[in-house]
Amino acid sequence: MTAVDDVVQIRDLTKTYGSLAAVDGVSLTVRRGEVFGFLGPNGAGKTTTLRMLLGLIRPTSGTVSVLGRAAGDPKSLRRIGSLIEGPGFYPYLTGGTNLRTIARYAGVPASGVGPALEAVGLADRAGDKFGSYSLGMKQRLGVAAALLKDPELVILDEPTNGLDPQGMRDMRELIVDLGRQGRTVILSSHLMGEVQQICERVAVIDRGRIVSEGTVEQLRGETELELVATPSDTALATLRALTFVERVRVEDGRLLVSVGVRHTAEITRALVHAGVSVTGVRRAERELEDVFFDLTTHHDGSTDQKELSHV
Ligand SMILES: Nc1ncnc2c1ncn2[C@@H]1O[C@H](COP(=O)(O)OP(=O)(O)OP(=O)(O)O)[C@@H](O)[C@H]1O
């Protein structure tokens, strides 16, 4: 993978507000053509990062390169469509007129309005007033506005927020379509299920810091090994003594070991060596949600779980 394929490069990005580090040393890379998930609980620093990416706010420190240029460079902004704060639409104008107005202000030809409405499935409602749209339609019009420039990079900040299940499904399909069209998409979300369904790679942010980055499979691959071993107290002590074992917990008589897959053989060897009889070994598939929970559980015992929800 060459640097040319990196659409976004963020290095050591920090934004502080007084004593609060809203974004704290974030580094991440988004590659051309991928649908990238930026996952984190409310207040984790997603919007702040995305706003710095667009040059809407200035970093306290660190660097951001988007489409090979500094954040906010007009030459790259022309190639980026974004839905961050939700564009201000006029409720008494139709969807189509709203988009034509935005196109005019953005210096984009009005010929882009039709395809943008088509892309979000609103072509047949273009003549209806924005005020009469459902929330899902309003959000989709927001995405249409982001598509007016026929952008290479689309940045969507929590686009399914507040939508009902059908609206969420429509939005997810729309995002998958954007990816199929060869656009690079950055999707921020606090919904693990959503990201799991549509993103190839994911960065998990919590309290301003990236706590994990990789493919959904890789994140899940920080797996648990499920063991049935007796005597369990010797097994537990043996496992806890192994430096590459991150965590061990006991559940329904089984030992659940957080460990890289490559250590499976070493683990069984160590147990047998300690006189433990191992009667079952299985790699437990973890839902991204569980991974996310582990990653965002804080050492002080608090979690952001209350902020998380299912799709
Ligand atoms: N202009 C600001 N002044 C002071 N604090 C801010 C400002 N903008 C953001 N913050 C704080 O920075 C932290 C990160 O906020 P941010 O909006 O980036 O989080 P988020 O992950 O996008 O969350 P959400 O999903 O709730 O939008 C929060 O604690 C927020 O209160």
UniProtKB/TrEMBL annotation:
GO terms for molecular function: ATP binding; ATP hydrolysis activity. CDD domains: ABC_BcrA_bacitracin_resist. The keyword Signal does not apply. The keyword Ribonucleoprotein does not apply. Gene3D superfamilies: P-loop containing nucleotide triphosphate hydrolases. SUPFAM superfamilies: P-loop containing nucleoside triphosphate hydrolases. Keywords: ATP-binding, Nucleotide-binding, Transport. Transmembrane segments: none annotated. It comes from the Bacteria. Residues 8-232 form the ABC transporter domain. Belongs to the ABC transporter superfamily. PANTHER family: ABC TRANSPORTER, ATP-BINDING PROTEIN. This is ABC-2 type transport system ATP-binding protein. It comes from Pedococcus dokdonensis.
